[in-house]
């Protein structure tokens, strides 16, 4: 697992081919990393199906329990993360695809009624479907067919894959509910702020970041900043900062031969003892042991 895979805030990686913007990937718990997916977002849509384990999903301002069989729809731009239970780690598969894959190249009825209205927020899709939900089989069956088709030669199955995506979209549109613009606006403001904070941490993790400094930068009191961050991400700002820094350190330990003390400094730790303690807390081994294992 590299830095792009587990520590990217705004994921810029293109999923699939520009001519067929889709990728399906299977995910199991990384043995040396406790979190399968930390907070991030991307411009693509995503369906995620839990195949094993239990845990928690965070989608923008909401937190939900997840278990085998659960299906999540993650809209473009949604900040999302997943945390597995320590004794029952998560496994899942995810299908990422671009809006253009299901769009019409013309402003016909299908584009206006079912694609554009969803993109501009008039159609609000539910994001969590459980096995006892009447909608669940209408989504699970075509997703499983896409999964099987992607395991074969995708170049021969594009039409079947796209038809199954449109089938799912049909049922999501039937199920969609309109939402209050006021509520959506408030939610958008919170999401926009947390994205700015995560981006700032990503760009400045090597500096001496403090709660006081972060709060002042985003024009909040320290208490207000701490409460806001914890409510949106599910961990404290310092926990997330350490999480991100240790992820960068793992990449540096794996990909190069810099001394551990230099890696600690590059990752924002001026005290090597504190770095070692923090590394062990997250990775359950020392930096030296991790370098040997990788």
Describe the structure.
By secondary structure, the protein is of the alpha+beta class. The protein is built from eleven helices and nine strands. A hairpin with a 2-residue loop joins strand 4 and strand 5. The protein is globular.
Major sheet summary line:
5 strands, antiparallel
CATH class of the largest domain: Mainly Beta
User: Per the principal axes of the C-alpha atoms, what is the gross shape?
Assistant: globular
Tally of individual domains: 2
Number of helical segments with 4 or more residues: 11
Written as H for each helix and E for each strand, in order along the chain, the element string is: HEEEEEEEEHEHHHHHHHHH
- Trace the largest sheet across and list its strands: 1-8-3-6-9
- Terminal-residue CA separation: 10 Å
Tell me roughly what share of residues is in helical segments. 40-55%
Backbone CA Rg: 21 Å
Q: Whole-number average pLDDT?
A: 84
CATH 4th-level superfamily of the largest domain: Jelly Rolls
Instruction: Based on the coordinates given, report the CATH architecture of the largest domain.
Output: Sandwich
The number of strands is 9
Q: Provide the CATH topology of the largest domain.
A: Jelly Rolls
Oligomer: single chain
Approximately how much beta-strand content do the residues carry? 15-25%
Structural class call reads: alpha+beta
Low-confidence stretches: 1-14, 179-183
């Amino acid at each position: 697992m590299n830095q792009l895979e587990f520590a990217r805030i705004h994921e810029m990686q293109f999923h699939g081919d520009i001519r067929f913007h889709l990728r399906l990937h299977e995910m199991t718990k990384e043995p040396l990393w406790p979190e399968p997916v930390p907070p991030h977002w991307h411009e693509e849509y995503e369906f995620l199906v839990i195949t094993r384990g239990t845990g928690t999903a965070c989608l923008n301002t909401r937190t939900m329990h997840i278990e085998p069989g659960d299906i999540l729809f993650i809209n473009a731009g949604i900040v999302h993360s997943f945390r597995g239970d320590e004794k029952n780690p998560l496994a899942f598969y995810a299908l990422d695809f671009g809006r253009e894959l299901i769009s019409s190249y013309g402003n016909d009825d299908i584009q206006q009624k079912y694609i554009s209205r969803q993109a501009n927020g008039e159609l609000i899709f539910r994001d969590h479907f459980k096995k006892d939900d009447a909608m669940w089989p209408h989504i699970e069956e075509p997703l499983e067919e896409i999964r099987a088709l992607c395991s074969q030669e995708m170049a021969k199955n594009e039409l079947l894959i796209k038809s199954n995506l449109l089938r799912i979209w049909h049922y999501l549109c039937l199920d969609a509910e309109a939402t209050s613009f006021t509520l959506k606006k408030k939610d958008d403001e919170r999401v926009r702020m947390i994205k700015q904070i995560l981006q700032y941490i990503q760009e400045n993790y090597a500096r001496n970041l403090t709660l006081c400094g972060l709060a002042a930068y985003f024009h909040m009191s320290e208490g207000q900043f701490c409460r806001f961050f914890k409510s949106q991400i599910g961990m404290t700002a310092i926990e997330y900062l350490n999480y991100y820094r240790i992820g960068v350190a793992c990449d540096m330990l794996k990909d190069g031969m810099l001394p551990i003390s230099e890696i600690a400094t590059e990752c924002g730790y001026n005290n090597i003892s504190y770095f070692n303690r923090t590394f062990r807390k997250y990775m359950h081994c020392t930096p030296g042991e991790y370098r040997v294992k990788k």
